[in-house]
Design the sequence.
């Protein structure tokens, strides 16, 4: 047998070895995937929460979106009362113009005695 | 590997179309399906090399599991494109095989290998082919580095540059190891010509 023949035979053996496909044993695949799942779950638990950004932080600081919606509703009502106050409420503009505290309190219907005690 | 379609996070994609890098990134992002695809793709290759290096099913399974575990651990820090995942994995497998062999030859009682269990031998697993058995037995007699080079070149069919990257040696050194390994194999197998069907030549 020549050297070339031996090389050919060796190449044939390699080819046969390649064809003899080695499958991953089923239990080994399960072990590998169990490891992967453990790593994946551990990474998920330790993952930092994503930054919420300025707006997100602001909303969170005010108590979340629910608190913010309440705040917005109260602001709208306040603005509405400012522009179209009911007739039974005193006009705030008068208080500013007169700067008379006693007049203001009298208008609110409080007793003069209360004012004296306060002084 | 069949080019079947898999559904990951609602996206349907062909598994073959996804690179190892993409799958590892998906795994790092919490995609369990990506781990399954990577195991299907890379697990058998790790196991095949470990089996041929160690000639022991239990040890080959342990090495494969450990190599894949290391892959899962580096997933979050893996930089796509920096290195080929398969190259990195082959290197891990070979290093683990070398470590295992060194541990076994350290000579303590604990390291004495247990007798083979009743699982099919390597030969049985490889289609009970006598010629493949002979090759495996001959490979086991090669010096470690020659065996690594020959297995990667002629069984795994990797290119010489890729083998050089895995073994951290030059391409010329790979060529030399492969050539010497093949010469040794020929010498070892020459005594079994009749058994291997050489006598007809």
Sequence:
């Amino acid at each position: 047998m020549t050297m070339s023949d031996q090389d050919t035979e060796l190449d044939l053996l390699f080819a046969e070895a390649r064809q003899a496909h080695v499958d991953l044993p089923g239990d080994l695949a399960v072990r590998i995937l169990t490891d992967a799942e453990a790593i994946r779950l551990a990474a998920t638990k330790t993952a930092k929460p994503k930054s919420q950004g300025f707006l997100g932080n602001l909303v969170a600081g005010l108590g979340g979106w629910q608190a913010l919606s309440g705040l917005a509703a109260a602001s709208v009502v306040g603005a509405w009362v400012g522009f179209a106050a009911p007739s039974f409420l005193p006009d705030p503009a008068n208080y500013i113009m007169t700067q008379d505290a006693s007049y203001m309190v009298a208008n609110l219907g409080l007793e003069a005695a209360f004012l004296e005690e306060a002084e | 590997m069949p080019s079947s379609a898999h559904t990951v996070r609602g996206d349907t994609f062909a598994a073959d179309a996804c690179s190892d890098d993409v799958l590892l990134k998906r795994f790092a992002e919490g995609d369990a399906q990506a781990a399954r695809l990577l195991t299907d793709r890379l697990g058998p290759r790790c196991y095949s090399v470990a089996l041929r290096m160690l000639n022991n099913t239990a040890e080959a399974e342990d090495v494969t599991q450990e190599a894949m575990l290391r892959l899962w651990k580096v997933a979050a820090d893996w930089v796509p494109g920096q290195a080929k995942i398969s190259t990195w994995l082959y290197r891990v497998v070979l290093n683990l095989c070398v470590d295992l062999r060194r541990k076994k030859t350290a000579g303590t009682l604990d390291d004495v290998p247990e007798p083979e269990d009743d699982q099919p031998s390597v030969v049985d697993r490889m289609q009970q082919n006598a010629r493949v058995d002979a090759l495996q037995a001959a490979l086991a007699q090669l010096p470690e580095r020659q065996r690594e080079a020959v297995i990667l070149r002629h069984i795994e069919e990797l290119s010489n540059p890729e083998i050089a990257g895995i073994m951290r040696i030059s391409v010329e050194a790979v060529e030399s190891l492969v050539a010497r390994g093949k010469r040794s194999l020929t010498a070892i197998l020459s005594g079994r010509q009749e058994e291997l069907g050489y006598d007809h030549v």
About this structure: The radius of gyration of chain A is 42 Å. The longest helix of chain A spans residues 26-46.
